[in-house]
Specification:
Layout lengths: L1 H11 L1 E5 H18 L4 H10 L3 H15 L7 E8 L6 E7 L3
Antiparallel strand pairs: 1-3, 2-3
Helix pairs in contact: 1-2, 2-3
Length: 99
């Protein structure tokens, strides 16, 4: 599930999920982007092991990394949006900060 969320966030730039998933997703995405900044073969293989779609992986290396190159960390933002209608679970909007 975490790999699916990482792929969706990198593909769309912003997703809405529960608070617990959002906080965990932030850890995964920060690690993937930090690893990808090396931009060598080992980094690409590590990213491909986590990101499930090859086109999203290419988007990360070609589009997102140049925008995040000078940033030392903190690539995501988590915003609380309120409780979910059905069960009252706290929801968050997680997005990449360079949008």
């Amino acid at each position: 599930m975490s790999r699916n969320l990482v792929t969706a966030l990198l593909e769309h730039g912003r997703i809405e999920t529960t608070e617990a998933r959002g906080k965990e997703l932030r850890r995964w995405v920060e690690r993937v982007i930090t690893t990808a900044k090396a931009d060598d073969l080992a980094a690409r293989r590590h990213v491909d092991a986590i990101v499930e779609d090859r086109s999203v992986s290419e988007k990360l290396f070609k589009t997102l990394l140049p925008r995040l190159a000078n940033r030392p960390g903190g690539y995501t933002r988590v915003l609380k949006t309120g409780p979910r209608q059905g069960d009252g679970a706290p929801m968050v909007l997680i997005e990449l900060v360079d949008r």
